[in-house]
Amino acid sequence: MPLDDPSFGLPPRSGEVFDVRLSAAEAAQALAYCRSMVGSGYDVLAMLGWAFRVRGLQSRHRVYCFELVYDGLAAAGVFPASKRLLTGDQLLVDLFEAGRVERLPGGTHARAAMQRQPAIVRAPRITI
After folding, report:
1. According to the lineage, what is the superkingdom (predicted)?
2. How many domains does the chain divide into?
């Protein structure tokens, strides 16, 4: 699969910033989760697993960027579960559908629909 194929799911690289609507309690929970992951290491092999949809390359103890964000939001109760092997497009669509971001860049829904579906995993628990 060529890297410029939209179904590959490259991270968004347009430099856009999105405000994610969270309550103070949700933001505190998400931040607490992210802080709890400091030092856990980046799941480098998962990047290959993400690219080629080989779930066996995932580490149970490490995450990559989109997974960290999704885990933090799931730990805060924004999502009922978390996801593995997801793309930036898929994360943005889920945030939009949950009413947490105001808008999506053009083509995001279409790209996300062409990408392989991520794996659903249990939401992490964090107490603050």
Report:
1. Bacteria
2. 1
